[in-house]
Please model this.
Amino acid sequence: MMEKKQVGLGDVLATYGVPDPKIVGKLPKGGTTLDFVGHADVTKMLIEIDPCWTWEPVAFDADGLPAYRVENGMAHMAGWLIVHGVRRLGVGSVQHNKPDVVKELVSDFLRNAAMRFGVCLALWTKQEWDDIPRPAAEPSAVAKPAPKKVDKPAGGPTTVLTAEQINQF
Model:
């Protein structure tokens, strides 16, 4: 069996920017239907791009789980996606009362953060794909500070990050 060659960051947009229609699902939202690609297919693409990809939340709660905050009925979790050593910020958002809120936050985060590398980018624009300018070569990665642990507020179900704390990253 022939091993697939790793996809470099410069080729992600051309290779994975427009998803195969067979993996595009439909999601009713606000009176319209949105196209989406599930986290399993995005994960498969990330593995093909970089088998050593990883992610990390920007903060952890007191139980060692990814920290998230709830605002206006929505849970939000920020994290870093690292592909080929390049680290980019992404955010996952879901209804706060989901039974597996952390799992769903991670799933939404992966799709959002992978888009920052060009994965399924065509789904995130209203333009025709041919109108989207191709990015220039990837600039060298800039070192980022390690994520910081933010303590869970007493009695609160989640860790709430202030704008100042988020801006530290």
Observations:
- The helical segments are 9-16, 39-49, 101-115, 163-167.
- The longest helix spans residues 101-115.
- The CA atoms of residues 55 and 81 lie 4 Å apart.
- Strands lie at 24-29, 32-37, 54-57, 69-71, 74-83, 86-95.
